[in-house]
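Quick one: structure tokens for this chain, please?
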Amino acid sequence: MIPCRTQPRIPLILISLITLIPLRALGAEPVVTVESPVLKSGMASIQVMMERSIAEFSGQINALVDESIDKPELLAGSSLAAAQAALVPSIAHGSARAYVGLGSVASYYSPGLSTAVVSDLNNLDATEDIDAGACVEPLVVRAGIPLNGLARGLSLAANAGYMNAETGSFGVRSITAGLSANYELIPARRGAVAWDGLSVTGGGDFARQRLSVTVEANTVTEVIPIDPDGGGPLTSFDATVSVNPVIKAGIDTTLISGHLGASTGVTFFRALTLFAGAGATAGWSKSAITIESNDPIAVSGYLGDLIDSPGTIGISGTAAEHSEAFISPYISCGLALSVGAVDLSIPISIKPFDSIGAGVFIGVRL
């Protein structure tokens, strides 16, 4: 067997990217394409040996890449985390008056809400999968208006987020939007300590996102034994072929979800509110993984000075698209603080036993 030395670990940066991705995808099938280096004229037999060995070399790279990005549990967990994050803006404490505000949202998924998986990332092998996921929406705009003209106690709220940024090896491009309606079934009471009544909220959310990372993977090297005359008097020698892969991995995601729930709360001194509720979310997601790389093949040793045209090795492919519908219950809680015309709201959404989302929003009543 021709020896091939590879490092069967992927950088933490790539693991972190996959962990933050809000989607679920299965069965990636990357393709390795090789353009073998061309030797100078008069070396046809050695050219054939080298091409045969490099073809075997590409198969080993293909297997390594396929194992590295086939992580259905990790991607499924990220999808569940994304659904939780999409819910958070709609459960933030609203206002009886028109308002506008800014905030951020983050969510995490892991069975039992265990955080032990975070410490395992540094030792995660390329072939391993983990049942966890996370999602971050760094900038979300919220706005709401009362619709008492249509029905007393009815209000409408909307939220939207946009991000298009690159930092070092990372790239993120996302668009999110949500719309919800709130109706007071039982009006709020007044007083130093007052019950907020009972409200019902329903709405929908949309997210489209692409996350990418450029990874300089470990050098892959193969030593090719060359016998120029097939057992004749000429001395055999080794040629070393190596590739320094620079891989750009990306994940494209579309998520549509809806929610319906009820909430109540208590307000102290018309300033501090503690609220809680429960409901259910349902949704659909479609996702695909892409991977691209095109790197020169370096040949060293005796053949290094005999290369007439350098070769390349490319890795490309898209995972088969995967779509899935989901439905899950949630409970919510949080606090809100009002000072003059300024409101601060910290909503928390929990899917029992496996995922949690939280946000911080600050707004101004108009």
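The first strand starts at residue 4 and ends at 5.
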